[in-house]
Amino acid sequence: xxxxxxxxxxxxxxxxxxxxxxxxxxxxxxxxxxxxxxxxxxxxxxxxxxxxxxxxxxxxxxxxxxxxxxxxxxxxxxxxxxxxxxxxxxxxxxxxxxxxxxxxxxxxxxxxxxxxxxxxxxxxxxxxxxxxxxxxxxxxxxxxxxxxxxxxxxxxxxxxxxxxxxxxxxxxxxxxxxxxxxxxxxxxxxxxxxxxxxxxxxxxxxxxxxxxx
Amino acid sequence: xxxxxxxxxxxxxxxxxxxxxxxxxxxxxxxxxxxxxxxxxxxxxxxxxxxxxxxxxxxxxxxxxxxxxxxxxxxxxxxxxxxxxxxxxxxxxxxxxxxxxxxxxxxxxxxxxxxxxxxxxxxxxxxxxxxxxxxxxxxxxxxxxxxxxxxxxxxxxxxxxxxxxxxxxxxxxxxxxxxxxxxxxxxxxxxxxxxxxxxxxxxxxxxxxxxxx
DNA sequence: CGGCATCCTCTTTGATACTG
DNA sequence: CAGTATCAAAGAGGATGCCG
Lengths: 213, 213
What we know:
The structure is a homodimer. Chain A is of the alpha+beta class. Chain A has helices spanning 9-17, 22-32, 37-43, 49-61, 83-86, 89-100, 118-122, 172-179, 185-190, 199-203, and strands at residues 65-69, 77-81, 124-126, 135-139, 145-150, 153-158, 166-169, 194-197, 205-207. A 5-stranded mixed sheet of chain A has the order 6-5-4-7-8. A two-stranded antiparallel sheet of chain A has the order 1-2. The first copy, chain A, binds a DNA duplex through helix 3 and helix 4.
């Protein structure tokens, strides 16, 4: 990107990550850790492959992304965030919080990848942190997601839960609305959600109060 | 901007404010409140006037910016943020915090407007909130800035202080480094900073601990 | 003047095809 | 798999023109 040529921290930050696709590439690396080129490409539907290659070069040059030659089991180069790149997490959370209101518009023709849910889910809290940890499986996109509570925090990762307290199956926008607390379970079931197991496990997940504004 | 076409809160946020210049327009409106077109244009050196007009249209359509026909004393239309637009403040602060490290590179040929300092300054705290409030005048860009502590918080606004505890005069990058605590006063004076008044007043301004990461 | 709209050139993006 | 090459379309940048 052309520099804005302004001696302002926001402008200088945008000189580095203000390019189209740049922050979404950071999102992918933040959510998935080390990624091969093809993993990134798959998690960024709509990007042109030459642009992905170009942005990775730029971000590497800016010290946001690092290329690593992975050892034999993988035997290819992978991309990961530098610590400088991980420092962009608050930017993505702020954008995600602000953009959350735009998720009420239905999914429409938008692409969806289930691991994208990990970002808003990590902003939830366990409303009963002293209770036993809960495990929820969410099946809603390209792959199932395991959601677990740990010390009041909530994390999501791809995978199939062994003994989940609840399993949630439905369209991404319905699942999202339930997790955001904007849709109660009965209404959600009317909109195609299927819930197996303990509804109370779902109810324990609450938006963190400080992440609202 | 073309939509990313992804059902993800970050992508949807960037559909609205990911365009080049969009977040800097929000920065201007956040820092200066209501603005005439020309004020915005002056605070965004480098932007093309047709782009500014176009972005303002887009942001108005997205509910981020509002046009107001100002009453007689001004007698022109002014732009301001909607509440939705003000909600972008955390995004700008996150970007500014991340970009702050890039401010160590000297100003070079970059343009500078002194009101841009208000954003990082508002992230400072008064390390001695129980002491008497302090007022500092900073003269470093196109116009002087009054910095005041109120209840442990620090605010900046354009203007000339009547009885400042200290006056800081120097190049933007030196002033910035001092405020960020990356340069002590003696070293800063070697780099052209002039300080009149009480050095202790400056020392009371400290980066807020939670805004570091 | 303040507040844009037009016109033109140059750069970036997007879509797809191709290669080691 | 991990990109590069090619090319058309969209967007940005810059100058200038118009209108109350």
